[in-house]
Amino acid sequence: MDFQYASQIIRESAASCILCDGKNCSAACNNGVDAAKILRSLRFENYCGARDLAAKNAACLDCASEECETACLKGKIAWPVNIQRTVAALLSLPEGSSELKDGICGEDSGEPSLATSFCGVKCENPFFLSSSVVASNYEMIAKAFDEGWAGVAFKTIGAFVPQEVSPRFATLKKESDPFVGFKNIEQISDHTLEENLGFIRRLKAEYPTKVIIASIMGRDESEWETLARKVQEAGADIIECNFSCPHMAAHGLGSDVGQSPELVALYVKAAKRGAKIPVLAKMTPNIGNMEIPAMAAINAGADGLAAINTIKSIVNVGLDSFVSQPQVGNSASVGGYSGKAVKPIALRFVCDVKKCFGEKDVPVSGMGGIESWRDAAEFMALGCGTVQVTTAVMQYGYGIIHDMIDGTKRYLAKYGFKSVQEIVGRALSGIVPTDSLDRTTRQFPKFIRNKCVGCGRCATSCYDGGHQAIDWEKNGMPVLNKNCVGCQLCVLVCPALAIEPGTRTLIANK
Question: Which of the residues 17, 245, 458, 462 is marked catalytic?
Answer without folding.
Answer: 245
